[in-house]
Amino acid sequence: MVSCVRGGEAPQLGIFELSGDNLKTCVGPFGGERPSGFASSKDGGETFSVWKGC
Fold first, then answer.
1. pLDDT digits over 22-54, tens only?
2. In three state form, how does the secondary structure of the chain look?
3. What is the Cα–Cα distance from 20 to 23, expressed in whole angstroms?
4. Could you tell me if 25 and 45 are in contact, meaning their C-beta atoms sit under 8 angstroms apart?
5. In whole angstroms, how large is the CA radius of gyration of the chain?
6. How far apart (Å, rounded) are the C-alpha atoms in residues 6 and 31?
7. Alpha carbons 40 and 26: distance in angstroms, whole number
8. Fewest C-beta in 10 Å: which of 7, 18, 38, 45?
9. Which pLDDT score is estimated for 16?
């Protein structure tokens, strides 16, 4: 689990998965719920990223 805080705002909660050289992250909007899976939706405010090693 991941949480980020910016200024005095509510935290931004997220999840991550590290598998070999690949890192997946998904964070919700500041003050929102922690995502339950690795996906984003048009109106949900989540940010889903996949980082692949070289």
1. 999 999 998 999 999 999 988 889 999 999 988
2. CEEECCCCCCCEEEEEEEECCEEEEEECCCCCCCCCCCCCCCCCCCEEEEEECC
3. 8
4. no
5. 12
6. 11
7. 8
8. 7
9. 96
